[in-house]
Amino acid sequence: MKKAAVIIPVYNTAECLEKCIKSITEQTYENLEIIIVDDGSDDGSERICDRLAGEDERIRVIHQQNAGNNRARMRGLIESTAEYVVFVDSDDWIDGNTVERAMEMFERYPEAQVVSFNVRQVDESGTVIRERRNRIQEGYYTETASIVQDLFWPGEEGSSYGLNPYLIGRIYARKLLEASLHRIPSDITFGEDRALTWTVFLGNPKAVFVDDVLYNYFRRASSITKGEDPDFLSKINKAYNYLSILFKDQSETLRLQLDDYLLDHILIALNRKIGFQKRAVFYPEFTPDPASFYETGSRVILYGAGKVGRDYYRLFKDRSDILPVLWVDKNWEKNNADFPVHPVDEIRNTDYDRILVAVAQKELFESIREELLEMDIPEDKILWVYPLKKEFGLWWRRLM
Predict the structure, then answer these.
(1) Contact 373, 379 (CB under 8 A)
(2) What is the separation of C-alpha 218 from the centre of its chain, rounded to a whole number of angstroms?
(3) Distance CA 152, CA 144 (A)
(4) N or C: at which end does the chain have fewer Cβ atoms within 10 angstroms?
């Protein structure tokens, strides 16, 4: 039985660390080397690591001064001895058969260098926010560079991802991982997972894709990635520069998707990262067709606080011919800090003419409609129109 190393970089995640580590020690595949790199924690995480290491001889803890997540990962890789490597972030967890499922694939396809599975994003209430699936059919591929040429940033309905850009969600042959990591410039501190993913797959490794959703990615409402960062544009530029060189001889589609990625993140920088919150540079990706769902003066309840709902809300609040009387979402608490989103039950206490369901997928609308009908909402008051998607590039070129 071949050995697999599970590397966990840890920094101040005491409240969820034990769940993460237990999900690894309880794997059905037992020949594990578990390396925990404590990156200077001071919230008690360091003591949890040591205690759990005393309970399982497979665990080795390395304490170091804070150097950042990437260096903690690299330290773990250097210290490991296993032939195969998987990374797990310390506030996430993996399903019990994750390593076994991947190692079965390496056994079945001895020349495979990476096994990739899917990821579910989970919020603080335990609700699954979404599944992030690779848009590649399950199977073994001996030529991977050719199958990922339009999967960098497709921006299609429901997801901006084609090939999941995470370092997590895969188990790598050690030699492939080491060779790829050494190509990533050390000054890339945003988009480093994406840079590594594309370095790996454009290197044309033999790869297995499985449809299983095995990795649980914990999304905090107060995630550090949502905060201000005055250096965000500089960080994006460094990732873009590396990827543009990497994509130089690839398909035109891939290079255009990289440009779209940069433009989208410039807007993120202006709106959320570098202090423009009070005077946002807002460009809506999704807009409704107004004539299809309201008459002048209609009192509309907006249902949905995802990307479509936020775009609709920003448009509606500046209009004089429509009155958004309420905005609701099932996961209202995670959005309430930034937007005036309320629980769905508030519909019962509100006078309105229409409920506009703001989602991109018709299947999701159908599910929401059934829930509203169970609340005795009249069917003729429940509306959904396919959101119109604006061409971002056309807007951008007008500014130049």
Answers:
(1) yes
(2) 10
(3) 13
(4) C
Indicate the residue type of 53: A
Span 9-61, pLDDT tens digits: 999 999 999 999 999 999 999 999 999 999 999 999 999 999 999 999 999 99
CA distance 303 to 322: 15
Cβ atoms within 10 Å of 352's Cβ, excluding its own? 17
Tens digit of each residue's pLDDT (9 = 90 or more) over 258-311: 988 888 788 778 767 776 655 555 555 566 655 555 554 578 899 998 888 888
Burial of 159 per CB tally in 10 Å (0-12, 13-18, 19+): middle
What are the structural domains of the chain?
A: 4-225 (3.90.550.10), 286-389 (3.40.50.720)
Average pLDDT over residues 143-159: 78
Q: Are 384 and 329 in contact (CB under 8 A)?
A: no
pLDDT digits (tens, 9 = 90+) for 360-396: 888 889 999 999 999 999 998 998 877 765 544 434 4
Exposure of 191 in the CB half-sphere (CA atoms within 13 A): 24
CB atoms within 10 A of CB 296: 8
